[in-house]
Amino acid sequence: MEIIRTVKRLEEVVDDARSKGLSIGLVPTMGALHAGHRSLVERARAENDIVITSVFVNPTQFNNPEDLRTYPRTEEADCRMLEECGVDYAFVPSVQEMYPEPDTRVFDLGPVAEVMEGAMRPGHFNGVAQIVSRLFALAKPTRAYFGEKDFQQIAVIRRMVELEGFDLEIVPCPIVRESDGLALSSRNVRLSPEARATAPKIHYLLEQSLNLKADGMQPKELAATVAAAIDDVEGLETEYYSIVDAETMQPIDRWEDAGVLGAVGCVTVFCGGVRLIDNIRY
Ligand code: AMP
């Protein structure tokens, strides 16, 4: 595996691969890699001739400077894992290399980016669109892999792809969890032992809520019931729980209102001061 630190070198290897007609799989990450990331990389490895994984903590998507400052950075271990997974190129640029000039682009992301994470983290999705569009323009992937843990992010990226006219396939990948149900996240290392013990209740309560749907409860009431159940757990505090159409990200009143992709419940919970996100398909 080659570690690439410059845009120039990335362009060289991409041009070479493209000229040979090779397919390119791209896995964008912010590092601190875990088995969730690995599942994306392995899928990309299975489906493409060349696999590029980017490791870049993108400052423009952080709306909270403290979160950016304390974001875990484990470059050496990340590169070891990527090499073990058979990645061809780890793209690990500096901030200066990615943004020689400040990126002032404002994307018209529309309704998918206005709710939930978009409402709670102003500027976050515009920053995601900035970095991902830049990575797509440079790596010219045939396919790009994203985890469904960040469910809304995938909808936002699809919108950005439509706006920018990229010709590539977005491949959504299922959430990877710990054996106790907690969704893997780079931020989980920030959980205290007590918070770590409490955090799996989030997934447990989401799963239990499938029974409420089976009993006939409609989305709005169900969402309020789940949020209250999470808040009843000592150490957990719901920021939002929304049941939305899995394509448009807009809240639905009745299950029949969901389109072909169905409904998804998206949650953000503070657990011992750490902001965790998760979701479940209904
Ligand atoms: P991040 O490094 O957190 O920006 O994540 C990079 C990619 O890995 C994103 O597409 C995430 O959705 C995905 N990802 C993160 N955690 C998980 C997980 N537990 N399961 C599946 N994909 C994940």
Would you give an account of this structure?
The strands form 2 sheets. Strands 1-4-3-2-5-6 form a 6-stranded parallel sheet, sandwiched between helices. A 3-stranded antiparallel sheet has the order 7-8-9. It is α/β, with parallel strands linked by helices and 282 residues long. The longest helix is centred in the middle third of the chain and has 16 residues, at 124-139. It has 11 helices and 9 strands. It is globular and about 55 Å long. The model has no long low-confidence stretch (mean pLDDT 98). Adenosine monophosphate (AMP) binds next to helix 2 and strand 5.
What is this structure, in a nutshell?
This protein is of the alpha/beta class.
What's the topology here?
Elements: E1 2-4, H1 7-19, E2 24-29, H2 35-47, E3 50-55, H3 65-70, H4 75-84, E4 89-91, H5 95-98, H6 117-120, H7 124-139, E5 143-147, H8 151-164, E6 169-173, H9 193-198, H10 200-214, H11 219-231, E7 236-245, E8 263-271, E9 274-281
Parallel strand pairs: 1-4, 2-3, 2-5, 3-4, 5-6
Antiparallel strand pairs: 7-8, 8-9
Helix pairs in contact: 7-8, 10-11
Bound molecules: adenosine monophosphate (AMP).
Core attributes:
282 residues, single chain, binds adenosine monophosphate, 11 helices, three-stranded antiparallel sheet, 9 strands, alpha/beta
